[in-house]
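User: Hi! I'm working on a homework problem where we have to compare a predicted structure to a textbook description. Could you give me the structure for the chain below?
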Amino acid sequence: MSRLKRVRRRSLAIERVWSTQLDDAVVGLGFVQGSRVAAISAAGTVWTVDGAAGTARRLGNHEDGGLALAVQPGGATVATGGQDGMLRLWDAISERLLTTIDVGRTWVERIAWRPGGARLAATMGKRVGVWDQMGSVVGLSSDHASTVADIAWQPDGGRIATASYGGAAYLTPQGSGPTDHVVLKGSSLLLAWQPQGRYLAMGNQDATVMFILIEDRETLQMWGFPAKVRALAWSDDGRWLATAAGSGVVLWDASGSGPRGRTPTVLEGHMGFVNSLAWQPKGMLVASGGDDAQVCLFAPSRQVARRVPGGDGPPTIDAEDAIPLAAEATTLAWSAGGGLLVVGDRSGAVGTYRMA
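Assistant: Happy to help. Predicted C-alpha cells:
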C-alpha cells in the first residue's frame, strides 16, 4: 500500500475555502488581518488574494524574480524582496505600494519583522539592514564572513540572530554588529527561536540541527539526518521543534530539561523530501509540505507514537490527514487564529483550507 493511500483522511475535517492560480511558483505568502492573503511568485509578482472570494489581484513586481515576503505582525504592511536588490513595502488592504528601498547591488532573500511590527530586518548579501515600519533606515551591519542565509528576531526583540558560514551571530536591534558568534564548522542555513526564548535552533548544511541554550551559551548538536536541513518550526508552547531534512519530520521534545538524551519522534506520511513546515498557532497541528505534491497534517500531542516490533529505530507517528496538490509544496502559513492554512506550490497554485 502506498504512503499516499495510507495517510488519507482519518480524523480531521478539512474544507477547501478557495483556490487561485498565480503566474509562477509561489515563494512566499502569509495572512493579512484575517483571511486576506499576500503572496509573491518566483517571477517577482506581488499579489493579494481576497479571503472570501479567492480573487487574486496583482500589485506590482520585482524585476528578475521574487525571493521573500513577510507580513507585519498585527498590521497590514507586507514587505517583499527580490533579485533586483529592492525591498518594497505594500499596504495589502488598500493594495498600494508604500515605498521602495534600494539596498544596492545585491539581492533581498530573507525578511523578518521585529515582534510588534515596529521594525524589519532584511538580508543584503553579506550584510543585514534594519528599517522602521515606514521604510526609514535604522542601521546596517558590518560584513559577515559569507552571504547571510537567514535572520530571526529574538522573541523579546532584543537581538537579531543571523546564519551564515561559520555558524550564527547576533546583531543589536539597530542592526550593528555582529556583536557575538556561535561557532559551527560549516554553514548554518536556517534559524528558529523558541517562542519562550530559551533556545535558538539552527539547521545546517552538514545535515545537523544545533540547539543553542541562550542562558548559558551551551550547544547541543543533533546528527543523523539524511540531507541538509530544509525547514524548522516551533510549537507555540515551546515544547516541540519540528525539523525537516528528508522524507520524515523529526520532532524534538524541548520541555523540562530539554532534548539532550531524548529520542526524537519521526512524523511519517511523505513519499519525498519535506521542504516546508508550519505549526498551528494556538493549536495542536503541524503541517508539512513536500516535493511529493502533498501537505501532511500531524497532531503529535494527541497521537500515540508507535515502534516497529523488534526494531531499534525512533518511534513514529503517521499523518492524520493529507491535502493533495497540483505540484510540489513550496510554502505554508497559518492564519493568526490557527483556523485557516494557506498553501502555495511550484505550479503557482494557492489554496486556503479550513480545519474543523
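For your comparison, note the following. The CA atoms of residues 11 and 320 lie 6 Å apart. Residues 1-9 have pLDDT under 50 and may be disordered. Good luck with the assignment!
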